[in-house]
Write a structure and sequence with these properties.
This protein is mostly helical. Helices cover 67% and strands 0% of the residues. Helix 1 packs parallel to helix 3 and helix 2 packs antiparallel against helix 3. About 12% of the residues have low confidence.
Length: 198
């Protein structure tokens, strides 16, 4: 919790160093909106697993994801409010990456990287025991890879201190959790899904 408080305080302090707020169509606004949606699904999946699994290390991981990503969502929404922007924009999801050499286009950018589909979420809710644990770890590993991909893209598009600092933190933290989840899968005789990272 102390680490989380430090992240929130640092984000708030860094925000004071930028005088001009980002525009509605800026990479910063798009990142904040899309990452908030991305984090919401990670929290949803983590609650499913936390409530179902008796495995203590896995429950600790889900708790960390719930607490950290809920707090970060609050920061993203706070930025948008501070910048005088709506929490949802009119542009399509991931449009902030279009035209910047990241492969996204306005027509093909609606799917955020790493997001689980409705059928995958249904399978996660209905699975039990080790099968559910493996599916969660596979889906969350891919989900984290998507978060890393989005954060790395933001770092190439923005030098705004508080947003870049958060993006860098997400890259480092989620890369560490990807390694942890890969180890957890190995302990269960399973492998991650094919990586979406290039």
């Amino acid at each position: 919790m102390a680490i989380l408080t430090s992240v929130v305080a640092a984000a708030s302090l860094l925000a004071l160093g930028n005088s001009q707020p980002p525009s509605d169509s800026s990479p910063e606004a798009g990142f904040a909106r899309d990452m908030a949606v991305h984090h919401a699904q990670a929290v949803e999946m983590s609650f499913i697993m936390r409530d179902a699994s008796p495995d203590e290390p896995l429950r600790v991981l889900t708790y960390d994801i719930i607490v950290t990503q809920t707090a970060q969502r609050g920061i993203f929404m706070g930025w948008l409010q501070q910048w005088g922007l709506n929490q949802s924009g009119e542009r399509p999801a991931m449009a902030w990456m279009a035209g910047h050499g990241h492969g996204a286009t306005a027509s093909a950018s609606a799917t955020m990287p790493g997001m689980a589909g409705e059928e995958e979420l249904k399978r996660l809710r209905e699975a039990t025991g080790e099968e559910q644990e493996i599916l969660f770890l596979q889906l969350m590993t891919r989900h984290h890879e998507g978060g890393v991909q989005m954060s790395q893209a933001l770092l190439k598009l923005s030098d705004r201190d508080e947003v870049a600092s958060m993006a860098g933190h997400i890259v480092n933290a989620q890369a560490g959790e990807i390694k942890l989840m890969t180890d957890m899968l190995r302990q269960r005789g399973a492998q991650p899904l094919p990586s979406i990272l290039k």
